[in-house]
Design a protein that fits this description.
The complex is a heterodimer. Chain A contains 4 helices and 5 strands; from the N terminus they run E-H-E-E-H-E-H-E-H. By secondary structure, chain A is of the alpha/beta class. The longest helix of chain A has 19 residues. Chain A is globular and about 35 Å long. Chain B has one domain. Chain B contains 8 helices and 13 strands. In chain B, helix 2 packs across helix 3, helix 3 crosses helix 5 and helix 6 packs across helix 8. Classes of the chains: A alpha/beta, B alpha/beta. Chains A and B meet through helix 2 and helix 3 of A and strand 5 and helix 7 of B.
C-alpha cells in the first residue's frame, strides 16, 4: 500500500529539525506498517491508497489555505508533538469543520499513529 | 461597555478565529482596532525607561530593556484608549522592534489587564470573561502534545501572567530565538481549560490537574503537563480553535463560569 504525504511548514521554525523529525517518523511508520510513504507535491497527493497532510509546525495554517481547494474529504492532518504542529492542526481542523467538511487529526504516540494509518488505508481514505 | 483593542490585525495563521465585533457586544465590550505602528512608536518613546529591580538579573539586560519598553508602550495605549484588555499581532514586533511582547503581557495580565498573543480575539474575549466572572488571571496556551490513552495534555506558550507563577525566569522567545520568552512555573493545582468558538456561540470547559511543569526543547517556554478529567478526543476530533485558556479553579468556579456563559446564550459542547 502507498501513502502520499503533502508537508506544510512555517519558515519560522528550524527546518533541519523538521527534516530529522519527519524522517524519523516516516522511517518508523514504514517499519511498523510495511507501507510505502512518499512526500509529494499537491498534484500527486491523491495518487495513493491514503493521502495525508503533514503539519510540521505552527504558523503553517496559511500554507494550508493555499492548497485547501485541491483537497478531498476527509482531510487527515498528520501532526507531530513538537514545534506547535498540534496547535496548527487544531486551528486547521476547526477551519475545515466550520466549512462543513470532514477531517481528523492524527496525533499521539508513534504506535497510535501507525495503527490509525493502517485502519484508514483499509477504509480507502 | 469596556474597551478591548486589537493591535495590528489577527495573525495570518489564525484562520478559524475571526470574530464579528458586533456579536461581542453581548459581553459588554467594545472592540476597537489600533494600528500596530502606534504600539511601536509608543514603545520607542520609552528608550530611557529604567528596569524594575526585581527582574531576574541573569538574563541579557539589553533584551530585557527592549521588552520592558514594549510593556511601557502597551501601558500607554491602555491609558490612551481606556482599555480593559488587548491582543497584539505580536510576531510583527520581531522585525520592527527586534523584541517580543511576552514580558509585557505577563506583567499586564498580572495587573488585571487582559493581554493575549497573535491578535487572537476569541482568546482575548475568553480571558476577559474569566476575569469578569471569576476575577482571576488566565494562561493562553497551545495544546502541544496529547496522549489519548492517559488523558494527558501538554500546554505551552511563551508568556503567562506572573501572578499565576510560583517562580519564573526569562529566556528567548521560542520561535524567533530573540527577545524575551517567560518560563513560568505554575502551581500543581486543579485547573479549568476554556475557550469559545469564533462565532461566540459555543464553548468548551474542561477540568484537570497540573501534574508537572516541563522544560522540553522545541516547545514554547512555559510548559505544563495536565491530566484532563474525562475524554481528550475533543482536541483531536471537534476543537473550537487552537489557543485555550487555563485558569486555576475547581468545580465551583466551573459552574460559575458555565452558568454565566449559558446566561449569555452560549452552548457548552464539551
Amino acid at each position: 500500500m502507498k501513502v502520499n504525504i503533502y508537508p506544510i511548514v512555517s519558515p519560522l521554525h528550524n527546518s533541519e529539525f523538521m527534516e530529522r523529525e519527519t524522517s524519523r517518523l516516516l522511517s518508523y511508520l514504514y517499519k511498523r506498517t510495511g507501507m510505502e510513504f512518499e512526500e509529494v507535491g499537491i498534484d500527486r497527493l491523491y495518487d495513493a491508497d491514503l493521502s495525508l497532510i503533514m503539519v510540521e509546525s505552527g504558523g503553517s495554517e496559511g500554507y494550508f489555505l493555499k492548497v485547501h481547494d485541491k483537497l478531498k474529504e476527509p482531510i487527515i492532518l498528520l501532526t507531530f508533538g513538537n514545534s506547535n504542529s498540534l496547535a496548527a492542526s487544531m486551528e486547521i481542523l476547526t477551519y475545515v469543520q466550520n466549512a462543513g467538511e470532514k477531517g481528523e487529526i492524527l496525533h499521539g504516540s508513534d504506535e497510535y499513529i501507525a495503527s490509525r494509518i493502517i485502519e484508514l488505508a483499509k477504509e480507502g481514505k | 461597555m469596556k474597551n478591548l483593542a486589537v493591535i495590528g490585525k489577527p495573525s495570518d495563521w489564525l484562520i478559524a478565529s475571526s470574530v464579528d465585533y458586533d456579536e461581542a457586544k453581548k459581553f459588554g465590550v467594545n472592540i476597537i482596532d489600533v494600528d500596530i505602528k502606534e504600539l511601536e512608536e509608543a514603545s520607542l518613546a520609552h528608550i530611557e525607561e529604567p528596569l524594575p529591580g526585581d527582574f531576574p538579573p541573569s538574563f541579557n539586560k539589553e533584551e530585557t530593556r527592549k521588552a520592558y519598553q514594549i510593556y511601557m508602550g502597551l501601558k500607554d495605549l491602555v491609558s490612551k484608549y481606556d482599555l480593559s484588555g488587548l491582543t497584539v499581532r505580536c510576531f510583527d514586533l520581531l522585525s520592527s522592534l527586534k523584541s517580543t511582547s511576552c514580558l509585557g503581557f505577563a506583567l499586564l495580565n498580572a495587573e488585571g489587564i487582559i493581554a493575549t498573543c497573535e491578535g487572537d480575539v476569541p482568546s482575548m474575549l475568553s480571558m476577559f470573561l474569566v476575569r469578569e466572572t471569576l476575577n482571576k488571571s488566565a494562561f493562553q496556551a497551545n495544546p502541544s502534545r496529547i496522549q489519548t490513552d492517559t488523558g494527558e495534555v501538554i500546554f505551552a506558550h511563551c508568556t503567562l501572567p506572573l501572578d499565576m507563577c510560583s517562580s519564573y525566569s526569562f529566556m528567548t522567545h521560542y520561535e524567533s530565538g530573540i527577545g524575551i520568552g517567560v518560563r513560568g512555573r505554575l502551581m500543581e493545582r486543579k485547573i479549568l481549560i476554556f475557550r469559545m468558538d469564533r462565532y461566540l456561540k459555543r464553548f468548551v470547559l474542561l477540568s484537570g490537574d497540573i501534574e508537572q511543569n516541563l522544560a522540553l526543547e522545541n516547545l514554547c517556554r512555559s510548559q505544563i503537563q495536565v491530566k484532563v478529567d474525562g475524554d481528550v478526543t475533543y482536541f483531536l476530533k471537534r476543537p473550537l480553535g487552537n489557543h485555550h485558556i487555563i485558569v486555576y479553579g475547581e468545580r465551583k468556579e466551573a459552574e460559575t463560569l458555565s452558568n454565566r456563559l449559558k446566561e449569555l446564550g452560549l452552548e457548552r459542547v464539551s
